[in-house]
Specification:
33 strands, 530 residues, 6 helices, mainly beta, 8-stranded mixed beta sheet
Length: 530
């Protein structure tokens, strides 16, 4: 729940509410490095310093020069949703309809002030509040695509996504490899590899240590973050103030109830839906860990082939060769590779002769290894022949520390009573960072505890509560007087001439005693769950 004043809370609960809002856009994307955040005792009233809603993290997009288009707003719709089934990553979208009577926002209007500036990536901020009290931010993100023009109604609609949704499609431009790293350390490395600085996110200390984290170059940021967050059974999201946050597996267990929905503030409630039931959970994981130094590549009985598809390296020539590290499972990540040296037999080494089969004159002493480059599952070697005869590298052996699959985890948990009542409603989770059976069992049992009954997920249409956030704990007293605690999985809001209302999806959350505060080391003596 966002922090608001008591006056704001009173307005939310009032029978009559006078809504207010702000809609800010930086169509021109003017970035002012001189803007800083207001500091009491330092900043001057009326200066360019801006007041930030959350002072814990400085975001660069806070410093854009925004223009206020609040008086053109016809409607604002936004949605913030945690992905199923674990809710590991929460993403947000918004659709904003504005008055366009003068074609100011028409992309083809060459006379318009924003001509050429109405496409992708325009920073947007949305605030909702009430007259005579504060307005809180409910969305920060970017426009996506071109605006949709309604010539008859003289309106324009902008579709927007939050920065995290945009970021998750970014591909890593280098491989990420970490040993014995907590989940937050893995997420931090992924975000930094994607170009963010540590000042742009706020991460809980992870409660799980993963022996080997590996994401190859080209992996999408969203995939990497989702897998690490699921292994932790945590949550990663960009909050309403544009701050990327990670909550560890124990964070939610300390949350208190933030709101209560009853017939007085609930407009409608969905009928319990059997399709939302989950009563059988399968968890699959192939875990890796780093082994001791050992051979990871050998030419065997053949000669090394260079990139020009030949095995010969002529007098004075320099050639490159690529070798791939593989085992029976496919590509094999390797760290701490030892560069090969001439004639070495008990570690990385190579031998050169005049013939492919190793016969003829030994030329090892005149063939030099100039350089090597490691690419986690491959290695590039550059050789130069400094001799007077054509050479062939007929033996090459490379030693390194491979991260091999150590364990294949498969856990299946079911709620027999629920299956009898509603038939099988299965879900499958495949995540190689779930490191042992205890962790897999913990995840499966939690899903069953929260989702095996038909009323475990409900959708409510409610009188709008702008400060409500996904992940909040709420109490819902239904039409039969049933009183249960849920967490908020999804919020969609709409503000228009009819007022402000929200559709809220809530899911039961069972707080189990086996959730510990502290760090559980995978494979250690202290299991994550019984």
């Amino acid at each position: 729940m966002q922090s608001v004043s008591q006056a704001y809370t009173d307005r939310v609960q009032a029978p009559m509410r006078h809504l207010d809002w702000r809609m800010l856009v930086s169509f021109l994307k003017v970035f002012d490095d001189n803007i800083d955040f207001f500091t009491i005792g330092v900043s001057t009233i009326g200066s360019t310093d801006i007041i930030k809603g959350d002072n814990s993290v400085v975001q660069e997009w806070d410093k854009y020069d925004y223009e206020d288009f609040s008086n053109r707003v016809k409607s604002i719709e936004w949605v913030r949703e945690a992905d199923p089934p674990l809710g590991a990553v929460t993403l947000a979208m918004a659709d904003i309809t504005l008055d366009n009577h003068d074609d100011l926002f028409t992309p083809t209007n060459a006379q318009g002030r924003y001509f050429g500036h109405l496409g992708n990536g325009r920073p947007v901020r949305l605030y909702i509040g009430f007259k005579d009290t504060e307005k809180i931010q409910v969305f920060v993100g970017l426009t996506e695509g071109v605006p949709v023009i309604d010539d008859k109604a003289k309106t324009v609609r902008f579709h927007c996504v939050d920065f995290l949704r945009k970021l998750q499609e970014t591909e890593l431009n280098e491989t990420v490899i970490l040993e014995n790293a907590r989940t937050d350390e893995g997420i931090s490395t992924v975000l930094q590899t994607a170009g963010l600085t540590t000042s742009q996110f706020d991460l809980d200390v992870g409660s799980v240590v993963i022996p080997f984290i590996y994401f190859k170059k080209g992996t999408k940021v969203g995939t990497a973050i989702r897998e690490l967050t699921e292994a932790e059974l945590g949550a990663t999201y960009m909050d309403e103030n544009g701050i990327i946050r990670f909550e560890n597996r124990t964070n939610w267990a300390t949350k208190s109830q933030s709101w209560q929905f009853t017939h007085r503030n609930t407009i409608d409630a969905s009928t319990p839906d059997v399709s939302k039931v989950i009563n059988l959970v399968e968890v699959f994981s192939n875990t890796r860990s780093v082994e001791d130094l050992q051979p990871v590549f050998t030419t065997g009985s053949g000669a090394l082939k260079f990139t020009d598809d030949t095995t010969a390296i002529g007098v004075g020539e320099t050639k490159e060769a690529f070798v791939n590290f593989k085992d029976d499972e496919g590509d094999l990540p390797v760290i701490n590779v030892v560069d090969p040296t001439p004639d070495t037999r008990d570690t990385s080494g190579y031998q050169a002769n005049t013939n492919d089969d190793g016969s003829g004159e030994d030329l090892t002493g005149v063939v030099d290894l100039d350089s090597t480059d490691i690419f986690s599952t491959a290695m590039k070697l550059t050789f130069t022949n400094n001799g007077t005869k054509t050479a062939v590298i007929n033996r090459l052996e490379i030693w390194g520390e491979p991260a091999r699959i150590q364990d294949r985890i498969y856990v299946i948990e079911k709620d027999t009573a629920s299956i009898t009542e509603y038939e099988e409603q299965p879900v499958k989770i495949e995540n190689n960072y779930i490191q042992d059976e205890a962790a897999a069992t913990s995840i499966a049992k939690l899903i069953l505890a929260d989702r095996a009954e038909i009323d475990d997920e409900r959708t409510l249409i409610v009188k709008g509560v702008p400060q409500l956030q996904t992940g909040d704990f709420v109490r819902y007293v239904d039409e039969k007087g049933n009183n249960n605690t849920y967490y908020v999985k999804r919020i969609s809001g709409i503000l228009n001439t009819d007022g402000l209302k929200q559709t809220v999806t809530i899911v039961k959350r069972t707080i189990n005693e086996y959730f510990r505060i502290g760090i559980s080391t995978i494979g250690g003596d202290d299991p994550i769950a019984p």
